[in-house]
Amino acid sequence: MRKYVIMGVQGSGKGTQSALLAADLDLVHISVGDIFRWHVKNHTKLGAQVRRLVAAGELVGDDLVEDVVSDRLQLHDWNYGFIIDGFPRNRRQAEFFLESYDLDGVIHLDLPDDEVRRRVLARRLCSRCGMDYNLIAHRPSTEGRCDVCGGELVTRADDTPEALARRLRDYHTKIDPVVELFRRKEYVMTIDARAGKTTVQQAIRTRLGLPPYAPPHPAESA
């Protein structure tokens, strides 16, 4: 059983890299952001709370994140292990995590703030089906329209320069000390996240001592 934490600022590719690892190793990918987006999309009570916070330009509180992650891990559907992103978000949560789970590694995706701004401000979301796009790496065939359903592509409510600046400040204030705590426990492997997704994935596997990444043949992934 393998248990990994993946950390990195918004736009560093945590979701992409987690999905690639999870698919090959039969891990459960636990994404705090995906959980919250599901609740927003399905109009749950939690989703309404998250929507209000985002509309006000505020971040979801650490206590709420902790409750969501705790509930998710208690499902115990991770027979071969998990990779979790978006948690822990402060030193207390990190210490609890270290006491509760025997981690096999903490993957730290390192990305300069100027590259974060370039990537995040290029993101778009389909207003109809929720498909993610990025005008740098994943452009739609028809400008402004989703390739899947034809819906209008919009900017996420929290992807504004002002909101991103707040998130970057919050990230460095809260998460940098968490990374340092993990580093002192010799769990952390820092990966340069500026390269393409295949290069980054291979670097992660090399550091974890895993078999090389074999990208799917285009015909297989179509």
UniProtKB/TrEMBL annotation:
Function statement: Catalyzes the reversible transfer of the terminal phosphate group between ATP and AMP. Plays an important role in cellular energy homeostasis and in adenine nucleotide metabolism.
InterPro entries: Adenyl_kin_sub, Adenylat/UMP-CMP_kin, Adenylat_kinase_CS, Adenylate_kinase_lid-dom, ADK_active_lid_dom_sf, P-loop_NTPase
Protein's cellular compartments: Cytoplasm
Protein name in the entry: Adenylate kinase
One MF term in the entry's GO annotations: zinc ion binding
Leading EC class: transferase
Gene3D superfamilies membership: P-loop containing nucleotide triphosphate hydrolases
Positions of region (LID): 122-159
Residue stretches in coiled coil: none
Sequence positions that bind ATP: G11, S12, G13, K14, G15, T16, R123, A195
Entry's free-text remark on domains: Consists of three domains, a large central CORE domain and two small peripheral domains, NMPbind and LID, which undergo movements during catalysis. The LID domain closes over the site of phosphoryl transfer upon ATP binding. Assembling and dissambling the active center during each catalytic cycle provides an effective means to prevent ATP hydrolysis. Some bacteria have evolved a zinc-coordinating structure that stabilizes the LID domain.
Positions of AMP binding: R37, E58, L59, V60, G86, F87, P88, R89, Q93, R156, R167
Highest taxon, organism lineage: Bacteria
Alphabetic keyword roster: ATP-binding, Cytoplasm, Kinase, Metal-binding, Nucleotide biosynthesis, Nucleotide-binding, Transferase, Zinc
Occurrences of domain Adenylate kinase active site lid (ranges): 123-158
Organism this protein belongs to: Nonomuraea mesophila
Record field: catalytic activity: AMP + ATP = 2 ADP
One Pfam entry name: ADK
Family annotation (SUPFAM superfamilies): Microbial and mitochondrial ADK, insert 'zinc finger' domain (SSF57774), P-loop containing nucleoside triphosphate hydrolases (SSF52540)
Region described as NMP: spans on this chain: 31-60
Subunit field text: Monomer.
